[in-house]
Specification:
The chain is of the alpha/beta class. Helix content is 38%, strand content 23%. The chain folds into two domains: 4-10 and 26-116 and 198-299, Aminopeptidase (3-Layer(aba) Sandwich), CATH 3.40.630; 120-151, no CATH class. The structure holds zinc ion (ZN). Zinc ion (ZN) binds at residues 1, 42-43, 49, 57, 112, 191, 193.
């Protein structure tokens, strides 16, 4: 998952925008041979990710990532499929990116599960008597008045469905909005994918920006195919979204087209059940596989 207010503020719904992949000209296509795909299961070990009613994000990520990897291996026996983790092990986000880069990945696919905080409600619960004083010294007088009383309760967040993230170029104005967002609210569970230790390092920033520009079109194309695939499956798609501010380390730090797939909401019962089922996990893996197949066809010009 990634935190909600940020999604709301900064995500741009892109899937509805007509898009032609003009940037993928023929010379780029010749060099676009897909050789190595990095499959990244989000979180792991002590980093549980989001919590549902009965399951953890990290376990769903691993199950789906392993199924996806198997399907990719079967579909593309000539491709190298590498995993950032194959067990319930804590995996540092910086390491994930380094692993992908040092293995010269041509595609980075990160599998995650979304979560939305419960919704807070305030209900009128009658009046209570409040005591207050006026005046000073001997003129001090005690008064009472009735003030409304509220009880607070929470209900499940109705957010559901899939969304796929790509990293977008740095923009200072949105960065400021991010800083203003109430990320410290206890209702907002922050994700370990959010923060990178030395994101302000100028050298890294320059590299990340370059990579973003270089791989944006391809990342966007794959992300669009993934969401189209989910729609074809009958899932509710929230679209392709991009993050512009301090954000998803694994997307920003990988020197290759990369996407982060939020496969559903663990906080939404139907999604949680689906993502914990064999059928649901296989469907998600098949959907991503279909997107990769399409991506391969387009980028390799076949
Ligand atoms: Zn996550």
């Amino acid at each position: 998952m990634i935190s909600r207010p940020l999604n709301f503020l900064l995500s741009i719904l892109l899937i509805a925008v007509p898009f032609t992949f003009t940037a993928l000209n023929s010379s780029a296509q010749q060099k676009a041979q897909l050789r190595t795909i990095i499959v990244d299961a989000g979180h792991g070990g002590k980093a549980t990710g989001a919590k549902g009613t009965y399951s953890y994000e990290k376990d769903i990520c691993l199950d789906i990532a392993l199924k996806l990897g198997k399907k990719l291996e079967t579909e593309f026996p000539d491709l190298k499929i590498l995993y950032t983790r194959t067990t319930d092990a804590y995996t540092d986000n910086r390491w994930r990116a380094d692993f992908a880069n040092s293995n010269k990945g041509d595609l980075f696919i990160s599998i995650h599960v979304n979560a939305a905080p419960k919704i807070r409600h305030r209900k009128f619960a009658g009046y209570r008597t409040q005591t207050y004083y006026t005046g000073k010294g001997s003129k001090r007088k005690k008064h009472t008045r009735k003030v409304p009383r509220y009880t607070v309760y929470y209900t499940d967040n109705p957010s559901m469905g899939t969304e796929t993230y790509i990293w977008a170029a740095d923009r200072a104005d949105e960065k400021e909005e991010f800083i203003g967002a109430d990320v410290n609210s206890p209702e907002v569970e922050l994700d370990s994918t959010e923060y990178a230790p030395d994101i302000t390092d100028p050298e890294f920033k320059a590299k990340a920006l370059l990579w973003t520009k270089r791989y944006f079109d391809k990342s966007y194309m794959l992300a669009s195919f993934v969401e189209e695939s989910f729609i074809g499956e009958g899932r509710f798609s929230r679209g392709v979204k991009q993050r512009n501010e301090k954000g998803i380390w694994v997307l920003q730090a990988t020197a290759m087209p990369s996407v982060l797939v939020e496969t559903g909401f663990i906080t939404y019962k139907k999604d949680e059940d689906y993502l914990n089922s064999e059928a649901g996990q296989n469907a998600v893996a098949d959907n991503v596989l279909a997107a990769v197949k399409k991506y391969k066809q387009v980028t390799e010009g076949k």
